[in-house]
Amino acid sequence: MNVSGHHYRTIWVNQADHRCINVIDQRSLPHRFLLEELRSVHDVEVAIRDMHVRGAGLIGAAAGYGMYLATLELQDESAYFSQLEKSAATLLDTRPTAKNLAWAVHVQLDALRSASTKEELVALAFKTANEIADLDAASCYQIGEHGAALIVQISQRKRGDVVNILTHCNAGWLAFVDFGTALAPIYAAHEKGIDVHVWVDETRPRNQGASLTAWELGQQGVPHTIISDNVGGHLMQHGMVDMVIVGSDRTTATGDVANKVGTYLKALAAFDNNIPCYVALPSSTIDWELSNGLTEIPIEERSGDEVKYVEGMSDGEIKRILITPENSPAMNYAFDVTPARLITALITERGMCAASREGLLTLYPEHQR
Ligand code: MRU
Asked: Which one of the listed residues 178, 201, 242, 249 is annotated catalytic?
């Protein structure tokens, strides 16, 4: 997608030095556009854990490249695979909720079983990491095409009037390798000349909506308005939202969706107001082993400091400010689960389906047991 008119992906191999992976350091956005170089498994571990890179698809792609960097670090010829499994465990431990991360690490481990020398392992890991990143971008592109059809339909029903779409957090291209999931249909519809406007939930506590979604929509020229997290219900009650589209960090085989905390409340409000609520996701987000999102999806709990402090730009510097009594404790669940019954449909790279086991199996029959 575009940054100041130049095309970027969120992660790429440095063409002058294949031992270096470049990423956009998302901690500085929207104020500064900074790139970072990742050269070791440790660099990737820190970048994912401390959210220099974030979003389900991007942390999957980063973990794929992390496994490639792990092959470059191999030393003990008699224990190559156990060293790789150790790096895999390190990467898996960084963030627990998004399925894409575990998916990518296991894709790498499965691929690497067929290699034995270090040279073979490095070459295979490099190829696989690139394939994981390319697949993520291609899937998101397809999600955009499938989802745009829904927006076109609403636009036609409204005789070309603006289509108002509410989204939560950032499931745009910054959260993936390119295009995004929830925002991909919006970009595709905008490209087709459909009049769209996006309500952007700020998404406390880390404000991925206010800082990242607003920034990337602005870069693509898509009209949008930032709202505080609590406004969505009011807008829906007053006919100011035509549809909700969100992303997913992990979706069960039965269609329950873990996404950024607060998604559940938006889905409830949409349900109560007869507003369609869509979840856009690539199949790397689906956990085919799980059937109950509420009890089975691990929900990341992050530091309470993210609730107590806000970060922003002041006098040309990024500053961190305490907004609560210093000694009050804070709790910070990063995700919640929206039950399948509140979801109108899932939008995947293979098309749309009901949020249910039957629905998902119509698109992914290879997962039939
Ligand atoms: O904590 P983050 O920023 O990594 O959370 C991921 C998200 O951005 C969202 O939950 C998103 O809606 C789905 S993942 C693209």
From this structure: 249
Domain boundary among 135, 162, 186: 135
Q: Which atom of ligand 1 is nearest to the CA of 57?
A: 15
Same structural domain, 163 and 268: yes
Domains contained in the chain, number: 2
Q: Quick one: which of 142, 166, 165 has its CA closest to 347?
A: 142
What is the whole-number distance in angstroms between the Cα of residue 295 and the centre of ligand 1? 20
pLDDT above 90: residue 112: yes
pTM of the full structure = 0.96
Q: In what order do the strands lie in the sheet with 21-24?
A: 11-13, 21-24, 35-38
Average pLDDT over residues 34-39: 98
The reply to whether 130 and 169 lie within a common domain is no
185: in domain: yes
Q: Is 249 a catalytic residue?
A: yes
